């Protein structure tokens, strides 16, 4: 497990400005639920002074994503939109007293959502799509421009650094050589040399093929994880029960004090993150009520 600062824990367990801003006039959406992280940032901007009066977030992701989104809304309230544009992902991490290297991409997502919201307020079209021919990481749709920007801004030096900040290279690893080429190019422009000895070594032999979990195995592991989390939920008068597993989606019921709690969505996000760590695969956790909607649509 990663070592989280007290600030990260504070903003995860007691997030600030969770939910959409009423009468918001700026909205920024980044990420993708299918990739495990998504953020929707809403702002209320004074049209005369362009000061951000209020900010709110809705996050689908891990504890670091929730904490990064929470602290971002606190940072930018009271700023003008021009001042907010100068907020970097490192500023977000610093306000959280640091993030684990593997979770720095959460602060990057916050910065992108902020830029997207400000573009929306100004009537501009914010695009994070890759340029034609510039897509580097197909697993997470990360382009060369974003990788170069992160290398420059955050003084990245290895493929592992790039993966931690952008997710690029964290899937099939086929893009590692392209990432190395970008690192070599950017570091050369800075008068530095890329250390290939620090690059990930390629396996000399074919790795053992890991068979995917059967649905029965997946259900058993999910139940084990829920059992491990149940005591903390029950301590607050709540509980969770597994209703069904269909493909890579687990349907759950939040019961007791967790049923209808405004923090239920974040609890589910935390459960999802833990399941992905244990199962070693992407899995969505959604309320069982969503399953009934699918059934009614199918009928």
CATH structural fold name of the largest domain = Sufe protein. Chain: A
Compute the number of structural domains.
3
Q: List the secondary-structure elements in sequence, H or E.
A: HEEEHHHHEEHHHHEEHEH
Class from helix and strand fractions:
alpha+beta
Strand order of the largest sheet: 1-2-3
Question: Average pLDDT value?
Answer: 82
Instruction: Give the name of the CATH architecture of the largest domain.
Output: Alpha-Beta Complex
| Topology, number of strands | 8
Count of alpha and pi helical runs = 11
Largest pleated sheet? 3 strands, antiparallel
- Spans with pLDDT under 50 lasting ≥5 residues? 129-133, 202-207, 295-299
The CATH top-level class label of the largest domain = Alpha Beta
* CA radius of gyration: 21 Å
The outline comes out as globular
Write a structural description:
With 299 residues, the chain is α+β, with helices and mostly antiparallel strands. It folds into 3 domains: 6-121, Alpha-Beta Complex (Sufe protein. Chain: A), CATH 3.90.1010; 135-198, BFD-like [2Fe-2S]-binding domain (Arc Repressor Mutant, subunit A, Orthogonal Bundle), CATH 1.10.10; 215-298, Fe-S cluster assembly (FSCA) (GMP Synthetase, Chain A, domain 3). It has 11 helices and 8 strands. The protein has helices at residues 6-13, 63-76, 81-84, 89-95, 104-121, 144-154, 159-166, 176-189, 215-235, 264-279, 288-298; strands at 26-32, 37-45, 52-60, 135-137, 142-143, 238-246, 249-256, 284-287. Strands 1-2-3 form a 3-stranded antiparallel sheet. Strands 6-7-8 form a 3-stranded mixed sheet. Strand 4 (135-137) and strand 5 form a beta hairpin. Helix 5 (104-121) packs across helix 7. The N and C termini lie far apart (43 Å). Residues 129-133, 202-207 and 295-299 have low confidence and may be disordered.
